[in-house]
Amino acid sequence: TRLQGDWSSDVCSSDLTYMEAIVMQRPRRRGFIGAIAGAALLASLVPAVASAVVGPATQLVWTSQPTTTAHGASIAPVSVSIEDAANQVVTSSTATVSLAIQSNPGGGTLAGTTSVAAVSGVATFSGLSINNGGVGYTLGASSGVFSVVTSNPFTIVGPASQLAFTTQPSATSVSSAIAPPVTVAVEDANNQLVTT
Length: 196
Hints:
Order of helices and strands: HHEEEEEEEEEEEEEE
Largest sheet: 4 strands, antiparallel
Radius of gyration: 30 Å
Structural class: alpha+beta
């Protein structure tokens, strides 16, 4: 059976009415085919409409976490997004977000620009640094009435203060080279490798 009618209409809100007309005008096989097409169209449109609806800002979320860094050196840029209850970024938000040290195992001080305005719902911080070494630092992000959110723990490597064998010498025959080669690391007071 051939389905009659004009099928060249653009996909828009009027297509649902068009599909309904097909069902009403061709009640048997053609109506069944029209119903299937209408259901498929509706299913494809609903997710797109739902995902496009962003609610009011309700929370802060870390989208780029701080990473291990040497004391006094710039931490790789970190970012915090302003999101709705469905974890969608509220791109219209330009709220100011501030960062501060939460857990401070090394008694360090956070330097750099610690308050920035969000751009398209995301606040990005560059050039931050902490002056003292420590394992388990965390940063807290705050903005207005939102609850403070805490970053993942990270390490600030302190100044070199000790040497440590990382590969010990092994039993070796007389006059033979020791294998594997012996290695010694330069570490800070928290046993963190000092790479600089």
